Every structure is written in C-alpha cells, then in structure tokens.
Amino acid sequence: MARFRTRLALLGSAAALTAGALAPAQLAGAQSAAAAGDYDWVALGDSYTAGVIQAAGDIFEVPRDGCERTDRSYPQIIHRDLGALFELTNVSCGAATIEDVTFRAQQPIGRSVPGNPDPEAPFAPVPPQSEAVKSGTDVITVGVGGNTLGFGDILFKCLELGQGSGGAGTPCKDELAASVPGRLAKVSKDYDAMLAKLHEKGPHAKILAVGYPTIIPKDTAKCQYNHPHQFLSITPGDLDWLRQDVLEPLNKTIEKSTGTQDAAAFVDLYDSTQNHSVCDAGKWVEGVLDEHNRPALVHPNAKGHQNAADHVTSAILDAVAPKD
C-alpha cells in the first residue's frame, strides 16, 4: 500500500478535472511528474468497450483474435493521452458476457453478423478477462452487462417482429416483456460475482464500472420507421419500451451492484449522451447500419467513444488521486 500512496503523491494536482474534461496543463504536469506506466490499468468489457465496428476505428491487433478492439475505442483514446502515467492491458472483447469477464473462456466472433460469419472465423478461445488483473493492478475499468441481458437477441427479435407492422403497436414488448425481470436479475447476480472476483484478483485496485450510453431518445418521434441508419423495423412503441424497461433498468442494475462495493464506482455515460442517440442528428451511437451502410448493430461510433474517454479519464484520475 505504501507503493500506491507514493504513486498518488506523484500525481499531485493532475486529478483536478472539470465536468469530465482534462485540463491540458494539468495533464502535462502529471505526465512529467511520474514515470511512464506508473499505474497499472486493466480494461475489461464487451463491444461497447472494445469498439468492434468500423465507425469506431480500425482493428489494430495483428494477428486478429476476433475480439475486434479498435484504435478509436475509449481505452485506446485514454491510453494515447495518459500513456505516460498508465500501463494499459486491454482485454475487452466483442460479445463478452459478465461470465466471460469473470470465469469463462470466450470464443470471439469477430465481425460476424447474423447470416454473415466473419471470413476469418472461427477464432481461438480467449481466457476469462479477469485473468488480466494482477495483485498490483491499480485501476480496473469494466463495461459489460448488455450481452448477459441478451440485448442483441432482443434487438433482432424486435426487428423481426416489427417487419410489416407499419410502425404500429408493440409486438416486441408483447412477446418479450415477461422475460425482462429475470434477465435483469441475472445481470445483478452475475455482476455481484464479477465484482467480488475482480476485488479478489486485484485487492488494491479501484474498480470503475462503466455504464451504457443513451441509445434511444426520449422522443421517439425522432426515429423514422424502416430507416436503416436508425432502428429499421422496430416500432416507436417498442423503442419506448426498450428505453424505459430494458436499457435504463440495465444501467440502474449495474449502478446498484457497483454501489455495494467500497472499492468500486459507477461511471455514468447516459446523461451526457441524451442528445446523441441513434435518432439524433449528432449521433454518437450508430443504427443498424452506419452512415456508410456498413453493419453497426447499434454501437458507439468514434464520437461516442471520445465522450466515454472523457468521463472514464476523469474517473481514472480521481481513483488514483491523493485522498485527504
């Protein structure tokens, strides 16, 4: 612990931040005051962390492992800014569930989409992400939960059920609403187990649980039925249901689990992205297809990852700042 306190002293005023934005002079001072890689940071998570889609940058790892970490995803953005302070181990992986982070080896899917497998698949299994956490790890960021909820499956079911509806009704809610409480209960149970495992692996680490951004606007009149750059055939009624009863409760479930741990904190991305949903002109999350008609399947683009980087950076620096 003495080593950790010594490191904190090196940071000094570098952790003084305003509204999630770094002050360049403070960052420069922090970088000059500490040795490169002075803190150990491990980034865990699913596709919302890894990047995955082309609108979130290029895959930078050769050979590919199928996890699809991109160079404009938020861990890589932060690493470029704070690389003099933090040594990053990024093992986030597209399609990861909470169990894949905690204890289960995962077989990555690359950029496979339904009916169109990645040409380089199958990929070899990757170890449970928690194995990257060591006793000397200082900070852990983790953004996961959507795949445990089965959000991708729900999304595709809503697309299927909305076809031919003309945008009327709530066919997806009618079929799937009864399953949502059980799905959220599993997220809560698995998330608690994951946090316990991460604390066991990195007993001195601060765990930062990164929430999900706004995907669907409060005013679903912004969303055009059958628009491929938005939600295609999902009806406005089902979009309201997905926002209110699926996505917002997912964030609340993660935040609640995080609140039970003294060494953990929740990083909220929802509020800062309220006006940057899939259906907003200045979108930070792509729709079913991106603006270049490439598969995006409702994932953050580079602007969304930049916003996440701002907020996660603030939380990381706060985590290692000297405390009174």
CATH class designation: Alpha Beta
Order of helices and strands: HHEHHEHEHHHHEHEH
Q: CATH superfamily name?
A: SGNH hydrolase
Helix content: 25-40%
Strands of the widest sheet, in order across it, are 2-1-3-4-5
DSSP summary, beta strand count: 5
Largest sheet: 5 strands, parallel
Q: Which regions are unreliable across 5 or more consecutive residues at pLDDT < 50?
A: 1-36
Class derived from helix and strand content: alpha/beta
Question: DSSP strand (E) fraction?
Answer: 5-15%
Subunit organisation of the chains: single chain
Radius of gyration using CA atoms only? 20 Å
Q: Tell me what the CATH architecture is.
A: 3-Layer(aba) Sandwich
Total domains: 1
The CATH topology turns out to be Rossmann fold
Instruction: Give average pLDDT, whole number.
Output: 90
Query: Shape from CA axes?
Result: globular
Which descriptors apply to this entry?
single chain; 324 residues; alpha/beta; Rossmann fold; five-stranded parallel beta sheet; 38% helix; globular; disordered N terminus
Structure, explained:
- 38% of the residues lie in helices and 8% in strands.
- The protein is α/β, with parallel strands linked by helices and 324 residues long.
- The chain has a 5-stranded parallel beta sheet with strand order 2-1-3-4-5, with helices on both faces.
- α4 (74-82) packs across α11 and α9 (180-201) runs parallel beside α10.
- The longest helix is centred in the C-terminal third of the chain and has 23 residues, at 236-258.
- It is globular and about 55 Å long.
- The model is unreliable at 1-36 (pLDDT under 50).
